[in-house]
Write a structure and sequence with these properties.
The chain is mainly α. 73% of the residues lie in helices and 0% in strands. It folds into two domains: 45 residues, Arc Repressor Mutant, subunit A (Orthogonal Bundle), CATH 1.10.10; 147 residues, Tetracycline Repressor, domain 2.
């Protein structure tokens, strides 16, 4: 590996480091992960790891910020694809599902940190999460002003859509074990994208019969 490649912020080595760190943080949490193991999994020495990113706190902050930024970009892009309120609201969980497909360890990583109260969550990531929540609010407000939605709590709605995605991505790993104890309907989806459509259907139309 040449000097120029090592010094390049977006190099393959740096990407490997961040991916290995993300996987280990997901598996063991911030407290359980070690720089030595991250370096081993990434196939680099500790000196290169520190050069590219920094210490464990810097690694965690970079991993989380990178993924949250990616989600924000996906959501913002998805919202430009339609002007119809229901389709625009559906674009939000679909964007999250796409991010999870690209990095399957993301839900476990985020749920570990959120469950702990976010002690290691960088401010940059918090700001971008808030921006995505604001996008949800804007979609809901627009839909309500156009008569497509009734007025609802945007924070609760966002958590129902996105929190469900994160939880179900982890729960899908237990799908076969659930099926052993309680047979699932034949049409039960086995992938997050399809499952997100079921969540969206329930959020948009509820479970009560019309006229009740």
């Amino acid at each position: 590996m040449g000097t120029n490649e090592v010094a390049q912020p977006g190099s393959a080595a740096r990407d490997r480091i961040l991916d290995a760190a993300g996987q280990l943080f997901a598996e063991q949490g911030f407290g359980g992960a070690t720089v030595d193991e991250i370096a081993r999994r990434a196939g680099v020495n500790k000196a290169m790891l520190y050069y590219h990113v920094g210490d464990k706190a810097a690694l965690f902050a970079e991993v989380v910020s990178t993924h949250v930024s990616r989600i924000r970009t996906l959501v913002a892009a998805a919202l430009t694809e339609s002007d119809e309120p229901r389709r625009r609201l559906g674009a939000i969980p679909r964007a999250f599902a796409r991010a999870v497909r690209e990095h399957p360890y993301l839900p476990q990583l985020m749920l570990r940190e959120i469950t702990a109260g976010g002690p290691n969550m960088p401010d940059a990531a918090i700001r971008q999460i808030a921006e995505v929540m604001l996008m949800t609010k804007q979609v809901l407000d627009d839909g309500a002003s156009r008569g497509a939605f009734r007025r609802v709590n945007p924070f609760a709605t966002h958590l129902m859509l996105v929190g469900a995605m994160m939880f179900m991505a982890n729960a899908l790993r237990l799908r076969d074990r659930f099926g052993d104890k309680l047979p699932l309907p034949p049409a039960s989806p086995a992938d997050l994208e399809t499952l997100s459509e079921s969540v969206l259907d329930i959020v948009l139309d509820g479970i009560s019969r019309k006229g009740n």
